[in-house]
Amino acid sequence: MVAIGLGLLAVSGLYNVAATRPHFRPVDHLIKFALRRSISLHSLGVLLPDLTDPALAQLGREHFATGCAPCHSQPGHARHPIARGMLPSPPRLEGAASRWETRELFWIVRHGLKFTGMPAWTGRDRDDEVWAVVAYLQRMPHDDDTVPAREKRTPALGFGIDEPSPLARCAACHGDGRRRPVHASVPVLHGQKEGYLARALSEYHDGRRQSGIMEPLAAVLSAEDIGRIARHFAEADRPAAVARPGDARVARGRRIFREGVPRQELPACRSCHAPETSAQFPLLDGLSGHYVEAQLGLFRSGVRSGTTHGRIMSVIAERLSPEQIADIAAFLDSGGERAPVPAEARREGE
Amino acid sequence: MARPARVLACTCSSAMLPLAGCAGIQSALVPKGGEALDIDPLFWTSAGVAMAVMAMVTILVAVALRGPVRWRQVLSREWFLTGGGIVLPIVVLTFLLVYGFLVMQAGATRMSAAGEHVVTVTGKRWWWRVVYRTPEGREVESANELRLPVGRKVMVRLLSDDVIHSFWVPQLAGKLDMIPGRINVLTLEAAEPGISRGQCAEYCGGAHALMAFHVVAMPAAEYDAWLAREAMPARVPASAEEERGAALFTANGCGACHTIAGTRAQGRLGPDLTHVGSRRSIGAATLPNDAAAFARWIAENDHIKPENLMPPYRNLAPDELRALGAFLDLLE
Question: Which residues does the UniProt record annotate as the domain Cytochrome oxidase subunit II copper A binding (chain B) (predicted)?
């Protein structure tokens, strides 16, 4: 009987789906109950990483400002008038961390929610990026009531770049050459090869390279924008290497970088990653160990093997053990070839 | 054609089909040198004896089933059973065994005669590293092709540094395994100039079936001249197209794995390319050796020879691939 009744209701068209008409209260309760139960159940298998690093939350905040705030607003800002017309209304997220378990927040950001307008994370298999947003949600300040409503700004609608220049948006995460990038998972761009930078932005633009953070930003760029940004960073000086005392790990990484591992059919990194090789092959000196490890992991697991260049690197990365990846990451983190080499390593290389 | 006739025709023609495989540059039945020439009569003798025994047994069975009573009585005599069932096999098999020992021994005696001319072949996944030692003691590296001087005994040292491979040139010798940590020695001697083909004869992983090579036997004087040329550094690019190819070779990091003597490319992971243009094939006898094949191989090697260890360079534009192909093809 109930099924027939619901069927007739659907056929008749009497149920009003207008966003201007809220659900009947019992229907609203039922939907919200089902939603909470579904999120709770499906997020059960999620393993929590360490989210204590404030820099991770800072990266999450930068993405939130362009990727989430247009609908959800952000602390100290008003709700966008268009977002206010949505049903269900995108909730403000101050205090969301106390309403949801951490694993539930991750699951929602990663997968999105049907019928709500909440989209899934755009970078396929980039769960590592989702955690930055979760870290920010956990640390999100409560709305600042001292700012009078009249003076509150509204975040720009549209997932793009509202700053006067796209470069300001780049610098917010990647640093300005003197300031390091906001988090170790974000690469230094200054002094990188122009060809590589333009290719990376084009790959993000076309969705060939996966990133929930970079794809939306690159999607709105024109070919001229991409060329201008690539040129800007390529012409900048590479930030001075942070000289760190080299440990055994760095020495092993240096060896792999310079000589490869013949018995594993592994060529030396520097035979391609050097200033004099193709402009499409990026320089690696001074990249953070975190970034190097994460990207080699993406090559190994095939997430970054979708492009022609990524395919080359995937073939090589599959031959590396996790320990060797950590060694290479430690070496590059210590400044790579630009770092002062300890005396005993210099002798070894001769 | 009536049905039984057609069946007979079909059976006959499919029985003949394998015979087509008996000819050609990779056939043990067309021996062209050393050990293979010795093994050849052993094969035909064994095969002949086996067929004679088969014919004899078939006739005896037919007689035992259908023959005249007197013949059948003879078959059941004790002296016949002892003679045909014990004495005959012992005599025939002993003859074959001794004959076989004598023939196979030849390999060991020949080895002592060789020694001056040494080639080291290392089985790789999935190609062959070939290193010649010149009379002056210099080492000259090549790959995926073996050149032999006609009439000279050449000692071939067989190595592997990954998995077990097996070196087999059916027209010249029997097969011999290449085992990591061991040096197996085979003596080859080409009896006449010509080209034959060898193949890895021990399953060694993904691209095993496409791990082959050519053996080029040439008159001794020509061989000496060839080896002297082979020891020289690579030809310098002459045309603009070749120069562009050489620049692309460097820029794309090809030197990480490949050596071109006389240039900065000194990689040791893949085949030496110093004189690659003069070889008969590329990809270990997978593709012919021409500019178009080089271009195809660089971009599509993972489809041409699945699981081979070289990354596919599909990042290169068609004109870049053409330039690289032209450059490599002229490295003679």
Answer: 114-229
The complex's ipTM?
A: 0.83
Query: B18 and B27 in contact (C-beta within 8 Å)?
Result: no
Q: What separation, in Å, do the N-terminal and C-terminal C-alpha atoms of chain B show?
A: 58
Same domain, B87 and B160: yes
Of the candidates A137, A76, A84, the one whose C-alpha atom is nearest the C-alpha of residue A109 is: A137
Q: A219 CA to chain B: closest CA distance, Å?
A: 22
Q: Do A278 and B253 touch (CB under 8 A)?
A: yes
Q: Can you list the domains of chain A with their CATH numbers?
A: 50-145 (1.10.760.10), 166-171+190-235 (1.10.760.10), 248-349 (1.10.760.10)
Confidence of residue A138 (pLDDT cuts 50, 70, 90): very high
Q: Is residue B233 part of a domain?
A: no
Same domain for B118 and B159, yes or no, is yes
Contact B312 A311 (CB under 8 A): yes
Using one digit for the tens of pLDDT, what is the confidence trace for B174-189? Answer: 889 999 999 999 889 9
The model's pLDDT over B68-96, given as tens digits with 9 standing for 90+, comes to 999 998 888 999 989 988 999 999 999 99
For residue A199, the chain B residue with the least C-alpha distance is B315
Contacts of B269 in chain A (CB under 8 A): 260, 262, 265-267
Taking a C-beta distance cutoff of 8 angstroms, is the pair A271, A227 a contact? no
